[in-house]
Amino acid sequence: MEQRTALVTGANRGLGAAIAKGLAGQGIRVWRGVREGGGAARDVRLDVRDEDSVTAAVRRILDEDGRVDILVNNAGITDGKQAPATADLDVAARVWDTNVLGAWRCAQAVVPGMVAAGYGRIVNIGSTLGSLALMDRPTEPGYRVSKAALNALTRLLAAELAGTGVLVNAASPGWVRTDMSPTATRGPAEGADTPVWLATLPDGGPTGGFFRDREPLAW
Predict the structure, then answer these.
(1) Of the N and C termini of the chain, which has fewer Cβ atoms inside 10 Å?
(2) Which of left, alpha, beta for 40 (phi over 0: left; psi -120 to 50: alpha)?
């Protein structure tokens, strides 16, 4: 089997690092998108809020490997303890730019190559907090609205790319210990299982879905 190449955004620590490690464990060449730090051989500078940075990162991967088969949109931020009626909308805008437009920019950068190759896997890291069916508490409004929008983007991309060999899905990793949630009970490796599964789906696998623990999750 030919070796696949993956780009994981926000991959220098936490969940992103665990996803990168899980993919590498399956023989995939993994590029870790990092805003700062890094230093591994296939770390690539990537600020998902900056279109030029996204373009340069993808160009570097294509120059060195000639392909991007898998994109995991993991980079994300939260607005913390805000309430919808009083939220700082400048903060919400930064969350939106990272969590939604950042993922969108990255997808736009890699989709043409995936379609040309007839193969691609895009995994958007969502959250149960973005499920409309479960949105009954007014917490983290910027984050929750952004994750609901990311679900919509997942559906739209999947619809556009149906029949091209490119599968697009969203994954909730569960409540995972990261810098945003240091007291969470689920370890990064456990949270990475569903994203890695979706990133390595066989041809004919599901597309346009939202999954947690490899099972469908209510939108």
Answers:
(1) N
(2) beta
Of the candidates 89, 100, 178, 193, the one whose C-alpha atom is nearest the C-alpha of residue 141 is 89
Q: Residue 119 catalytic?
A: no
Between CA 53 and CA 24 the distance in angstroms is 24
DSSP code for 36: S
Choice among 31, 96, 104, 143 that is catalytic: 143
Q: Whole-model pTM?
A: 0.94
Tell me, rounded to whole angstroms, the distance of Cα 18 from its chain centroid.
Answer: 13
Q: What is the pLDDT of residues 24-57, one digit of tens each?
A: 999 999 999 999 766 666 999 999 999 999 999 9
Partners of residue 71 on adjacent β-strands: 7, 122
From 101, 71, 67, 53, select the one nearest 7 (Cα to Cα).
71
